[in-house]
Structure formats: structure tokens, C-alpha cells
Please model this.
Amino acid sequence: MFLPTTKKELKELGWEALDVILVTGDSYIDSPFIGVAVIGKVLLKAGFRVGIIAQPDVDSDPKSDSKSDQDIRRLGEPKLFWGVTGGCVDSLVANWTATGKKRQKDDYTPGGINNRRPDRATIVYANLIRKYFKNTAPLVLGGIEASLRRVAHYDFWSNKIRRSILFDARADYLAYGMAEQTIVELARCLQQGQDPRQIRGLCYKSGTITENSLELPSYDVCAKDKNAFTKMFHAFYQNNDPITASPLAQKQDTRYLIQNPPAFCLSGKELDAVHDLEYERELHPYYRKKGDVKALETIRFSIATHRGCYGECNYCAIAVHQGRQVSWRSKPSILAEARRMASHPFFKGTIADVGGPTANMYGIECTRKKTKGSCTEKRCLFPKPCAKLNINHAQQLSLLKDLRGIPGIRKVVIASGIRYDMILADQESGNRYLKDVIRHHVSGQMKVAPEHSQPHVLEKMGKPGMETVLKFKEIFDQRTKKEGLNQFLTYYLIAAHPGCTEKDMTALQSFALQKLGVLPEQVQVFTPTPSTYSTLMYWTGKDPFTGEPCFVEKNIHGKERQKNIITARGSKKRTVKRKQNSNQKGRK
Model:
């Protein structure tokens, strides 16, 4: 069932009022890939009555009685709390490019026009609720926008250090991370009139520092002193493991932000329970009449097999939001979802993706992490895979084989990125895995993410050296040719990352042309998002691990020049096209 989004739907369910109302910057797609839908369904299963208001009108008049001006009021007031999220994508990332251009399209908005999600949506929605409902139920922030801004953070769009979003939004609580356990515990505490301030994964305000808390440098100090901000970020990052983390305290004004230790990672059984809930895999009818939502094309017939990542790339926020441990679903749960998918009236035989943050991390995890937590002095995959990680793709091989055997499924695609260094490190099953993927699970192209070619830039990114991607490319090309398939590798590349100069981009262009045989048309300009080490480098101009100065391109035109070195059209583009055509003929 869809969660209700109108008073009419409440009546049809026989509900007089709601316990929780969730407000989101996305349109309401009922899918396991949409955070607000997952949180709503988890709360519903726990016995709470939940409704959703998606992309509410923020320019309405509280004194008006017109329907458009009642948008945020249309479900009434919740008994327990309001849940507020900017959506699946940070609102500023959704609205603006890294070079300051307004994005015209929004994949999570009906009709695709970017006209429904305000900048800093979490703060705007919190203010909207306060505008219409005085002394209302508690406001609880969640989602990636809030999760990455839970402590003092560098904000690229205003180019300054900002306070915790909990304070700027004047909210009561912030549930960070994936938050299923946290939000259910919070709802139960509020329902029973208990104090929720001991719940894992929760942030709140306090007049004093709580017992056993690690005090971070204050917001005022961090805003003035980049070295203090670096010290704060190290402590914040290292206290994101549920096994080892201490409570954190940071003074924001006259009060303190208190961050409780993270919620424990969901077990396989718990993750199964989340994905076994009934999802419509469709846009709610109330919003469907406004147009199609492009994101649904990708996620409707995709399967998430796991969450978390131990890549810890410096530009990526997954480690802070989902965690550095990997939790995966059981094979029976995944196969059951695939069978339900195959019976969907719109299913045409192809599962668009089977994966997670990185596709081939399913079924692989360091046993040490389960009891001792993530290592503080080293990473799982950088500069090379840790010997204790026990990389073996056997479980994923078995899963993929069984998915291929389900009646009604013609093709199972792996569209999520694949860590080629993990395949090369897997002496037992790596070759079989790659062979199976090439033969059965590539839809014309396989995505890999070398990001750059220059060693000093890769070091700033936390990515492996180019010898691994070249070795992988050689094996991929040989086996693709042997299978008689016309398939290719596509490469994610980043321009203007800290440490990268125009000279480095010229070297990357040469490497891509001469070694990879391509010159990609799409190169991402680095966007400094809160709570990543790369963003820390961008703000401070220093390598946070060595303290050495680090070149940072902050000029918009300089960023565009770096990108254009790869993407500019001309004689080099034609040369690449001829080389690609020659390679295709050779494969045929």
C-alpha cells in the first residue's frame, strides 16, 4: 500500500489522525530506494500511523484558505513528531552544479522540471512547519542532507563554516545515517512519554556536555581556525563506527550539539525485513497526475543487495552516512524480491541493477569489524586491499546464477560501479566472477571509476594506482573478445579535485586516449559536499593527513578549463572516435 498523503486517504484507511508526518524534498515514490518510503514503511510495520507530504508549497500564506495554501496542513498535525528530509539528494547538489549553474531538471520531481525543491530544503521545510503549527510536535531531521550537516561543517555554497543543521533548522532531534532503528526507538519513546536522548544514531541539543562525551572544538573556533576545524573533522570521522565511537559534544551557540554513537548496522535478517516490506514501486497517484518521475525508470526494477562501503574514497560521503561496514541481505530475500518484480505488470524482463554503493561488495566483510570496529590507522582498500578483508565473490556468483534462473527474467544487469581492484585481489573467485559478469550482466558497458591517472591526485582521492585499472582493462578486453561480445568499459573521471591542476588534467587526457582508448564526454567537476575529507582539503588548502599544502582550484573558470581539457570537442575527439571504431571492428 501507499502511505496516505491526503485527508481522503486517511478516511479510506479509517484513520482519524497520524502519529508521524514525513515531509520530503522528493516526490513520493514508494520504493526501497527512497528513504522516506522506507522510514514510513518501517514505522508502519512497528504500529505507527504515518503519512507523507512530498515537495510542499513553500510560498503559501498561512492565513489563506485556498487549497494550494493548505499544502503543509493537508494531513493535520501529527501526535508524535514531524520527520523532515531534503530528499534522496542534497538539495543544493540537486539544484546547482559545481560551477554555479542552476540545474534545470530534477529526476525526483514530476515532469522533471526543477521547480519544487528549495535550496536548503530541510531548513525551509522545518521553518514552514513552524510557520503553520505553533508549539507543535517535535521536529526530527533525517536523510543525507541532515546527516552530513549534523556537526559544524564547511558549506561550499556560502563558502563558510556553518552550524549544525539541527540548530539552523530549530529542530528538536536529528536521526543520522540510515536510521531505521533510531526512528522506531524514537517513536516508541515519544509515544510512552520517555526521554529519547540515549538512543543511538540521534543528535539533540543540550545546555551541558553529557557524561563521557568527547568534546569537539566549538563552532566559533572552527569557523575562525582551519587547523581547529581539521582537528574536529578527524575526531568526527573516527567516531562514526558503532563499535568504537564515543558520544560527541560540540558547542554551537550557548548550547551543545550532542551526537550519540551510531546505531548498530542492521543484521542480514533485519535488512531482509526492511526490503521484504510491500513497496508499490510506483509514484503515488496524487503526484502522478503532475507528470512522470525520471528516477523511477532506474529504480523501479533494481535490487539493492547490501549497504555500506569500505572503499572510503575521500570525496564520498557513504562512509559517514551508511558506514564503513557492509551488511547484506540473504539470498532468499533477494530472490523473493526478484520474483515479485517479475510478476509486476510493467516488468519487461530486465532487472536494471543488482548491487549497492559498489556492486561487488556483496557477501564480503572483514570479521574483525564485527567485534572490534573499523581500523583507525588504515583503510580496507587503500592504498591496496587489506589481506584480512577476505575478498571472495563466491556468494555474489551464486546469487547472480539463481537470479538468472527465475522465470520471466531475461537479463540481470549490474549497473552499479564495480571495484576492479577487488576482482584482481580475489585469487579464488575473481576470474569466474568477471567471466560471468562479462557473459551475462553487462548491458553494453561496464562502469568503473579510476577517477584520475596522476598518482598524487589519486592519493588525495584515496584511490588505487593506474596499474590496477590497466590490468583489469586488459583482462576485460581479452575475455569480451573471446565471448564475441561488443561491450566496453566506461570510466568515471573527476576534474578540479584538490591536488589537481590543469597540467594534471592534460596528463589524464593523454592517459585516457593512449592507455584507455577513450576520451570521455562526461567528466564530473568535484563538488565539495559536507563531511568528506576532500571537502576538508578544499576548504583548508592542506592535505589533512600530512599537513602539507595542497593546490585547490576554486575559480569557476579554472574548474571549467580543467573539465574542458577532457570534454572539449575537436580534432582529438575525432581521433578517439576513429580509434574506438577500429577497436570495435577488431572485436567483431
